[in-house]
Design brief:
- With 311 residues, the protein is an alpha+beta fold.
- It has three domains: 98 residues, no CATH class; 56 residues, Dna Ligase, domain 1, CATH 3.30.1490; 122 residues, 2-Layer Sandwich (D-amino Acid Aminotransferase, Chain A, domain 1), CATH 3.30.470.
- It is built from six helices and 16 strands.
- The strands form four sheets. The protein has a five-stranded antiparallel β-sheet with strand order 14-13-12-15-16, sandwiched between helices. A four-stranded parallel β-sheet has the order 2-1-6-7, covered by helices on one side. Strands 8-11-9-10 form a four-stranded antiparallel β-sheet, sandwiched between helices.
- It starts with a strand and ends with a helix.
- The model has no long low-confidence stretch (mean pLDDT 92).
Amino acid sequence: MNKIFAAYYNRDINELGQLYSEKEDRQFNEAVFDLFDTLAKKGIHSVLITKQNPYIGNGQFFGYWEPGKDFRFTAKSEIVKPALVFDKGHIDFNDGFLNIFNSHDFARLGRNKYTQSVIAEEFVPHTKLVCSERDYDDVLKSIKTDKIVAKPLDKNGGKGVTLFDRDRLKDNQVFPVIMQEFVETNDGIEGMVEGRHDIRLYIIDGEAVISSIRQPAKGGWLSNTHMGGTIRFFNKSKINRELLEFAKPIIKKFDSLGGKYYSIDFIHGNGKWYMVEMNDRPGIPALQQDTNGAIRDFYEKFSNMIIKELA
């Protein structure tokens, strides 16, 4: 088999043959099937590789999974040598024979929010690295907002993110973290969204191809869907023009550092745009989430990038 594309996930396939079985995550399982189906229609053989498939060197894995019926994967006990690997699980065993996107260097950048804030300093809310309580005085001198956001350096999905009143800064903190000024987004964006929000741009080969608008649950402030937030997808023609212009130099920075597929989150508050963070391995949206053709546009762009990389 020539020109095999593999998606690597740092998870186990469960006894039902599913990558994700939890109800709130089931769309991620279906998204892999949607991607593989799109690629199959373009003549590309795709396989899934998980923690259960050991890397044996020289770009080879022992065993892989193929899509079966009812969104279940079927195990194959054969050696496979993919020509290209989409790393959704932070591969740390590359001996130089694996052709991976995104690169290890870019993945490390995705796991360090402080490094991101330095690279995009002029675009993010004012940010300080905090390594111990000794740094608190400096934080309070430089961050003037009544509320302060604390984030772990290396977690995604809103995990570990907390919002403090500035006089409660020392409560139950784990170091190191970054602390940022809190930007209130209650005013929304005229013509796009009412109330608190964030907007994610999905970047493929340097182009913002689709966007999503996420909003927190009532009374909340984190928009992550795992925390009860809602999400809507939009194709490129619906992305705010002002946001696209704001994002251009940021995308250029991250592309120059090796990004092939990633996302950037933005918010609008105080009358201006801010970058929140970059995610080096965002989830692939599933076609079941599509309401206006945006996700079909995404699959077309994503599959074309894979075909180009395999050429």
